[in-house]
Amino acid sequence: MRSPSEASRIATGDDGARPEYTAFRALYRERYLRYAFARLGRDSEVAALVQDVFDDLAVRWPEALRSPSPAALAWDLLTSKLSAAGGDGATGLLRARLPDGTADAVVLCRLCGMDVEEAADVMGIDASSVTSRLGMARRTLSATGAEERVRANPLFG
Q1: What is the total count of domains within the chain?
Q2: Domain RNA polymerase sigma factor 70 region 4 type, which positions (predicted)?
Q3: What is the DSSP string of 10-63?
């Protein structure tokens, strides 16, 4: 993990802080914290993990700006770190039954309370992809009989 000063130094240009990075961080940080808590279920690790994601993103910021979707690159960093952390909190059943991106859409929309457009923005994909993933999740969970167990979980009520 980089020190906050090192990441800040990397994310700044000669003329001061890069406003795009600062704005991106301000826009996404709270939503990343909510999602990370849903995945880990361990409050003590969430802030440090999300900070680490933004430290890594600061280093890769020029690459993110050249990419088709900086949000998608940042989302990949976040989900990779969460997978490495090994916790799936209340989302374990979903992640066992659904592809990662589909489970992510369900967690963002159902557990984190985001609408389809906000979830799409956070994931760096279009809203129709999130809608499609949510439909796939309903069909898959219904076909496997897991839908009732997911709904029985008070977090998904």
Answers
A1: 2
A2: 96-141
A3: HTEETTEE-HHHHHHHHHHHHHHHHHHHHHH--HHHHHHHHHHHHHHHHHTHHH
Q: Is residue 146 a contact partner of residue 97, using CB atoms and an 8 Å limit? A: yes
- The whole domain housing 67 covers 1-87
The answer to whether 50 and 29 have CB atoms below 8 angstroms apart is yes
pLDDT-based confidence at residue 88 (cuts at 50, 70, 90):
low
14: confidence class by pLDDT, cuts 50, 70, 90: very low
Task: Answer yes or no: do 13 and 83 share one domain.
Answer: yes
pTM across the whole model: 0.83
Pairing label, strands 12-13, 16-17? antiparallel
Same domain, 78 and 119: no
What is the pLDDT, as a whole number, of residue 7?
54
